[in-house]
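BUG: 3D viewer hangs when loading the predicted structure for this chain

Environment: internal workstation, default settings.
Expected: structure renders.
Actual: progress bar stalls at 90%.

Input used:
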Amino acid sequence: MPAGKEARLYVSPSEIDTSTAVATLQGDVTFVETCVTDVTVSLSATEVEASDRCGNGFKAAVQGLKEFSVEFSLIKKKTAGVLPAYLTNLRDAFMNNTLITIMVLDDDKDTTGADGFVAVCTVFDFSEDQQLEEVIKNNITLKYSGDSVYAPVAITMP
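Structure tokens produced before the viewer hung:
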């Protein structure tokens, strides 16, 4: 049973064909591991009413459009006054409305059998918490982007 501390979130500052993601990862694509605290991957679908008179008195529904989103927090760390690449990639994607590709796995990407999702996303929230007695944290929400032709996919690392 995987522990949450083993899970990983990776960010690439470009759009990647998710249908070939595993093969792409073994190539020259740069995915930067992101030092996050809590991560929530949400997969949901709308409910479409499908009741008719042949349902024997039961309401019926079918799955409609799916939604993919990832919410996470990360500590704002600087090295010699410089933000890490993953944080600037996320900030720039938000500010410039550009696409990024993320990979969320239950273990390191180099671990055989690690599984999760790859998706091309838009950054919808890039907020910063500056609590008096806490470290500064960024709270980020990513959602699958309608600007991408590549749908989110479930992957298992070879």
